[in-house]
Write a structure and sequence with these properties.
Blueprint (H helix, E strand, L loop, with lengths): L21 E10 L8 E7 L12 E5 L13 E4 L14 E6 L5 H7 L6 E8 L12 E7 L3 H14 L5 E7 L8 H4 L7 E7 L10 H7 L1 H8 L4 E7 L3 H15 L4 H10 L3 E5 L1
Parallel strand pairs: 7-8, 7-10, 8-9, 10-11
Antiparallel strand pairs: 1-2, 1-6, 2-5, 3-4, 3-6
Length: 278
Amino acid sequence: KARAPVSAGKPSTNMYTVGKPARMKVQGNYRLTDDPTHDVRHIILDAGGLPFPVLEGQSVGIIPPGTDADGNAHLPRLYSVSSPRDGERPGYHNISLTVKRDEQGLASNYLCDLEKGAEVCVTGPFGATCLMPNAPDARLLLICTGTGSAPMRAFTMQRQRAGATGGMTMFFGARTPESLPYFGPLKKVPEGVLKQHLVFSRLDGQDKEYVQDRMMAKQEAVADLLNDPKTHIYICGLRGMEEGVEKALSSIAESIGQPWATLRDAMREDGRFHVETY
């Protein structure tokens, strides 16, 4: 069973429901990608005077307007929060979401088409385990693809604001630089805060590379993290990535004499290993 990190803050959950959602206003809707086949948006929502406390790693539910074919109201779709606990801007207590448009996706099309000032019904917050450690010397190994970068962005921003010293290492996969969310802003994050390995699988004239391939290429650095009891691992993205990442972690762990299954279970028991795939 997944556990929250020992030093994580106490999360608030289920404050707003389908029957009584929070009504938030859109403060901004910005396209993050230059790839016409990958429309990914950064959407900022303002709760106004409503209390809506969130911690990095939590998610919220978005209720699309209208009804389904049977006349029932649509159920909420969950999205990870991509902003830190005190807001997209410090002290503003607004929240942001990272949303990829799916041609068949009811909620994603609704969100991606929102204009500034529109009202959105939000439920939650949800999630009490995939949280960020508050210990400043904690080390984070972040492995993500696509919109799985949402909680990783929240972690990075909060640790920058809090002056955390443990450092973070991120393996972030996408098809091309044009389809990688936050490609530009990531370049502005100092290496002392976040060591970045941006991995692309569809570059012209180059072999396909996935996050697990780069992890193996950097196995000494990953092994150092696996050996450190202060390390927390977060894996977030498409479900198809999980098997390859697990194999890479298993190989690297065994190279330092640690059976991966045993190490993984011990980390999970300590609240230091988290997987969220979709």
